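Researcher: Quick test of sequence recovery. Tokens follow.
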């Protein structure tokens, strides 16, 4: 680069963030068992604790932030009708099952390789739904 050429000037933020982290998120909560977790696990947990949707899901009693995705989809396309039957494949931790029941589904079944804590009104199965013997 010659002396006549100037490097492109970096754009700076108009206002620095107030509180939280540089990403603009809240400070979150402190982990109690950080010493037993890998660095990537610690970072994932910190992101989850600081995430506004995860925080809102915990506050409203949903099992996962994914519940808000199904609510938005159902508000737009009206997929879950009163009295309908729903199967949730890959159901853990059960947020979509909760929404289906909340929206009036009469029968909801959830299948996952992971154990799902019981949900009143839902039939839960810990199994591989791709296996021919699962019914």
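Model:
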């Amino acid at each position: 680069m010659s002396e006549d050429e100037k490097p492109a000037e970096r754009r700076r933020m108009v206002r620095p963030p107030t509180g939280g982290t540089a990403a603009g998120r809240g400070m979150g909560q402190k982990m109690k068992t950080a010493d037993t977790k890998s660095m990537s696990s610690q970072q994932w947990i910190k992101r989850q604790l600081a995430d506004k949707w995860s925080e809102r899901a915990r506050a409203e009693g949903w099992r996962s932030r994914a519940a808000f995705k199904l609510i938005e989809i159902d508000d737009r396309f009206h997929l879950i009708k009163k009295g309908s039957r729903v199967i949730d494949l890959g159901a853990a931790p059960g947020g979509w099952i909760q929404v289906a029941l909340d929206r009036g589904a009469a029968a909801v079944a959830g299948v996952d390789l992971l154990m799902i804590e019981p949900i009143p009104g839902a039939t839960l199965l810990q199994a591989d739904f791709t296996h021919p013997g699962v019914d």
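Strands lie at 85-89, 107-112, 122-126.
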